Amino acid sequence: MTLRLDFGDTVRLGPGKVRLLELIGDLGSISAAGRAMDMSYRRAWLLVDSLNQAFVEPVVATRPGGKADNRAEVTPFGREVIRRFRAMEAAARKVVARDLRSLEDAIKADAEPRRMRDPEVGSI
Q1: Which helix (H) or strand (E) segment is 106 a member of?
Q2: Residues 6 or more apart from 14 whose CB is under 8 A from it?
Q3: Is the pLDDT at 54 greater than 50, yes or no?
Q4: In this predicted model, what pLDDT tens digit does every residue of 2-13 receive, in sequence order?
Q5: pTM of the full predicted structure?
Q6: Does residue 110 form part of some domain?
Q7: Domain assignment of residue 97, given as a range
Q8: d(CA 106, CA 103)
Q9: Is residue 96 a part of any domain in this protein?
Q10: What is the CATH classification number for the domain harbouring 95?
Q11: Is residue 115 part of a domain?
C-alpha cells in the first residue's frame, strides 16, 4: 500500500518526497540525499523547492558555505511533516490490512512484478 496526499491539483506529498526529506535529515545534503535515491541534484532540489513553496513554513533550510555535503537541514516543521506522514501511513495500513491481505492472496503466484512509476519521484 502506498499513501500519497494530494492538496489541490498541484501539491503532492508521498513516500518519495518524505524519504528524500528523511535522507536530507540523515545526510545533511540535498545532493547526497538525491544520490542515495538515484536522482540528480537538480531533481532533488526541485522536489525540495516544491515542498518549501507549498507549505507556509519551509521543510528544508539551506546555508551557503561549509562542506558541500553539509549545507541542508530538515526544519522542525519538516520533521513534523515526516512524522505526521509516517503516522498516517501506519494508520492507513492498519485500517486496510485485512482487505489488502485478501487481495494479495488473490495475486497469481507466477505474476511478474512490473516496475511502477511514482509521479512524484520517477521510477521506483
Answers
A1: none
A2: 2, 3, 4, 5, 118, 120, 121
A3: yes
A4: 899 999 888 999
A5: 0.80
A6: no
A7: 5-104
A8: 5
A9: yes
A10: 1.10.10.10
A11: no
